[in-house]
Amino acid sequence: MLKSVSDGPAVVVCNTCRYSQEASSDDDGVRGGMLLAQALRAVKASDARYAGIAVQDMACLFACAEFCAVHLRAPGKVSYVMGRFSPDDDAARAILDYAAHYAASDEGQVPYAQWPDGVKGHFITRSPPVGFVAE
């Protein structure tokens, strides 16, 4: 069930997420999560600022009510699950912009003033790294 991936900063996208609250896929039958994964990879490839952030995907993050969900994680940092994204380049850029600030942070906490508008209101959970709790 588990597959080994790089352990650096990563955006893990649910490739089976719904397209929207109302639809599971686009008009061509492609799931929203797969479209978001494609957009994340395309935007990442277009900008060197995102070189240190992996885009990984997996089936079902169990955030089904929050369609187009991603998990932002890195060793020793608080991690976040975000959702309710449109599976497009604008959302992908906002996620990767936030991920760049996240990767540069000491513990995974990004000052609100640095949050791209496109991630505000999309946070679902935060989780502490193994061996820690957040204060």
What's the Cα radius of gyration?
14 Å
Mean pLDDT: 96
Taken in chain order, the helices and strands follow as: EHEEEHE
Q: What is the general shape?
A: globular
Give an overview of the whole structure.
This protein has helices at 32-46, 89-104; strands at 10-14, 54-58, 70-73, 79-82, 123-127. With 135 residues, it is an alpha+beta fold. The radius of gyration is 14 Å and the shape is globular.
Which secondary structure elements does this structure contain, and how are they paired or packed?
Elements: E1 10-14, H1 32-46, E2 54-58, E3 70-73, E4 79-82, H2 89-104, E5 123-127
Parallel strand pairs: 1-2
Antiparallel strand pairs: 1-3, 3-4, 4-5
Helix pairs in contact: 1-2
